[in-house]
Amino acid sequence: MGDKPKSPSKSPSPPAADSSAEPVSDPLRLQAAEEDAEAGSSDLDSIFGESNSSSTTSINSTILEYRRLHGRTYQNFKDAEYWGPNDDRQNEGLDMAHHMMYVAFNNKLHLAPLENPQKVLDLGTGTGIWAIDFADQHPSAEVIGTDLSPIQPVWVPPNCKFELDNCEDYPWTYPDDTFDYIHIRGLVGCVRDWERLYAECLRCLKPGGWLEQQEFALPIAGNDAPLPDDCVWHDWGAVFREAGRKMGRSFEVTDHWEGWLRGAGFTGTLHTSSVRLPIGGWAADSRWKEVGLFNRLSLEQGLEGFATYICTQVLGWRPDEVTVLLAKVRQAIKNPSYHAYYPLKTVYTQKPLASE
Predict the structure, then answer these.
(1) Among 253, 237, 187, 252, which residue's Cα sits nearest to residue 340?
(2) How close are the terminal C-alpha atoms of the chain, in Å?
């Protein structure tokens, strides 16, 4: 708790998140490019050149009868609560965000110091892209991805499988001491009782196994100077803070996860790190420019999906009010003067060995 975002400085090849990093007190800023970094389409073009579903759980017709709201589809798994759409438009944005994080972590899928993991669980796997990539990199490991929606591809590595499951259904069906590694990502605003979920992670990890979580954090801020008082990014953050309070599912997980992990029984060192994710292509360094451009693409792709359910169903807004907010956010995404960013934070810790 209390760790501030660190990011590349003016050196040409700055490190990504340090896998052993502790909270920092003097974060370095990203260096902005001298030219107009949002000269936009040419940068995007430099990155881009010219489904079916599967699950190890039987998929009945009710689960596949997705709920519909304002032209978007949402999961329909038992009594599970989740605010994000599960349609192709949103899923494409999730895959863009996966690449963004992979580049931000210097082409790493994890920061925990894993040694030949044999059994891996990816909670809230989404499109399954992280689980598939991890299975490719670790062919001797069995990788299980769980999610509320059967949106994962059919053709996957032979050591990867997907299961329909709600991570808030306790206790989990996995026996004690099952996994060498449990990976969590992108579950802000999704879990009511994190301490209970972490306790299940602790139970299901083998002695010496690792739990790692990566989450986006608030606020969205200016890299070089504070954002203007009338900037819509302030309103955007306030929307999700208030929605989290009303749902009882916080979007500010990273502010509390250390206390929740301790409360769940994790006694080992909590390794934390944070990097700044630029919004748009304003960073001077080529790697962070790529991160920023994919961040912009992911946000533009998922923007409506992020806000529709939250604003209309949780906060009670009218659709026209949501439209106005989204128009302002789209303008802010493209504004080259803001040099806006938000933190990507990581925590990982180890289950004690049986002898400890």
Answers:
(1) 237
(2) 25
* CATH code of residue 339: 3.40.50.150
Q: From CA 241, how far away is CA 221, in angstroms rounded?
A: 15
Residue 117: other Cβ atoms inside 10 A:
20
Which 3 state secondary structure label does DSSP give 74?
Answer: strand
Q: Is residue 176 part of a domain?
A: yes
Amino acid letter for position 187: L
d(CA 171, CA 155): 30
- List, for residues 132-149, the tens digit of each pLDDT value: 999 999 999 999 999 877
Average of per-residue pLDDT values in the chain: 82
How many domains are there within the chain? 1
Q: What is the pLDDT of residues 171-181, one digit of tens each?
A: 999 999 999 99
Helix, coil or strand: residue 93 = helix
Neighbours of 100 (CB within 10 A): 23
Report d(CA 238, CA 230) in Å as an integer.
Answer: 13
* 8 A C-beta contact, residue 252 and residue 268: no
pLDDT in tens, 60-102: 555 455 556 666 656 555 554 655 566 667 778 788 999 999 9
Residue 54 is assigned to a structural domain of this protein: yes
With tokens 């969590």, the residue in question is 184
pLDDT band at 33 (very low <50, low <70, confident <90, very high): low
Give the pairing of strands 340-350 and 271-278.
antiparallel
* Residue 20 maps to a domain: no
User: Cβ-count burial of 203 within 10 angstroms (0-12 exposed, 13-18 middle, 19+ buried)?
Assistant: middle
Give CA separation, 92 vs 3, 89, 239, in Å. 31, 6, 24
Residues linked to residue 97 through DSSP beta bridges, in sequence order? none
- In sequence order, the β-bridge partners of residue 350 are 210
